[in-house]
Amino acid sequence: MTTVDQTMNDAEFAAASAKAEELSLFFREIGPKYDIENTFAYPSIDAFKKSGLGSLVVPKQYGGQGGNILHCSKVISELSKGDSAITLAYNMHFIMCGIMMGLMSEAQNKHWLGRVSDGEIMFGPFSEARAGFSGLADMKAVPQAGGGWKIYGVKTWGTLSEASTIITTNATVTDADGNIPEGYEERVSAEMLFIADFDVDADGQGDGVRIEKTWNALGMHATGTQMIHFDGFFVPEDGLVCEWRGGAFGVLEWASLNFASIYLGMQYRVFEEVRAVLAKKTLGATFGAIAANETKVSGIGHIVDGVGDMAARVELSRRVVYRTCQELIDGEDDEWPVELRFPYIGLAKTFVAENVMYMTRKSMSLVGGQSFRKGAIFERLYRDSAASMFQPLNSDQSCTYIGEYFLAPEELED
Amino acid sequence: MSTFKDADEVYALIGKALEACVTEETFINATKDGTLVVLITQTDPVATILVDFPGQKVLCGDAAAGASSTVQLKMSSDNANKFWQGKLNFTLAMAQRKVKLEGKRSTALALLPLTGPIFDKYKAILGEAGRRDLLVD
What we know:
The complex is a heterodimer. Chain A is of the alpha+beta class. Helix content of chain A is 48%, strand content 15%. Chain A folds into 3 domains: 10-121, Acyl-CoA dehydrogenase/oxidase, N-terminal domain (Butyryl-Coa Dehydrogenase, subunit A, domain 1, Orthogonal Bundle); 140-247, Butyryl-CoA Dehydrogenase, subunit A, domain 2 (Beta Barrel); 252-413, Butyryl-CoA Dehydrogenase, subunit A, domain 3, CATH 1.20.140.10. In chain A, 45% of the residues are buried. Chain B has helices at residues 7-22, 25-31, 62-65, 77-83, 90-95, 106-111, 116-128; strands at residues 37-43, 47-52, 57-60, 71-76, 99-103. In chain B, strands 3-2-1-4-5 form a 5-stranded mixed β-sheet.
């Protein structure tokens, strides 16, 4: 019997990186059109599938490439360097693959990840209007007499829905009459994670489920983050994965660090664009803070400092994100207080988010007024970077988790 | 007021269930090559139980308190009673500080999905001991 080395090796990762570089260039090429048109970048679907990167993190025993979270982070940041909005859409696929493979049974992994290895794309709308990701699901899963559940409710952040054929989501299992458990503890325990086929037509209409194209935001236009309406969407018994909150606890790094990788890639792009402009820009004859017959921007002190500062921020972010990934791979998170695992992982994302927002603002200041015009890459990066404030964990949430831990009394709450 | 009379009753009931746990095949397979030794410190009544998974043994009282462990779990004896009947949401209990988990816990958390068969065993032990009043609805 031939044994399979389950982890992606260096040669395999080099091949995946080459695919990512190729796909990144394509995203870069089509990105501006879909930013202007404010729609999902439909041509990206075939390109993404053709790249084979969809199975990057799927274990080899299920037909995937066996990439770990560091491999994933590097691929996402490379793609994001090309176009962060389009990559943010496919980031949803990588997030859900990472989360689901840690929670599904062997049979479920074999079936669903096998389909991903065959080229299918999955997404996962979880947030609802009332309280986002942290809110317990108001969406109901009503048990059916013949087995399985019918799902009723609305999810607000259905990123990548227009490219996906597999859906994952959370809903609260009710009684037969559709009543959510009244007790808090019972309600937490009744919130479940499901996986199912997502079969909708070209207009986004399916059996008991539909896409409502509502996405219209300051930035990240090409993500296709639509609302998903469930109105009796049937999930068979084998679509139940696990209790959601307990399960998510150990796998949310796939969300947090993948989001961090998006904004790390954006930092790469900001720096690349700033450098390209400022290295050759001249102001000609000036009479202001600098009085000279020929003023080269690359010789102005605050520009030099600004570019150096940006380069330092990019390098620090790269180290923070990739090192955090490596610490998880090495199991070093086992040494952290359990309450701090998620916020400590989240620090990478909040660090990168603060830096990318600083960089997109600073880049406009350094480049000058031309960066503010519609169509300029800096104007777009400035808008897109603002999205980094929102994905979990944001900096306020991280600090709250951490502060609560350090201020909590030693004794148990009982 | 605790539902347990004293520490000896905790050992006779929960300790006995944990002895069944360490010799359960699924737990043996999941822990045989590891270092998972869990020290459970309970309050009200105070009780200490050491669960040595690789060694397939359970120690109680002073013998447990003096042994080394890789994971430390603290909870009240009432919550332990609920937990071993499958009636305590462990993640929620951690978030609400009803349970405190320290040490190398990834293996311990990975065992949570395997605990189902132990619940029935514990409930049977309660019945055999004439402590059906400890059963949680």
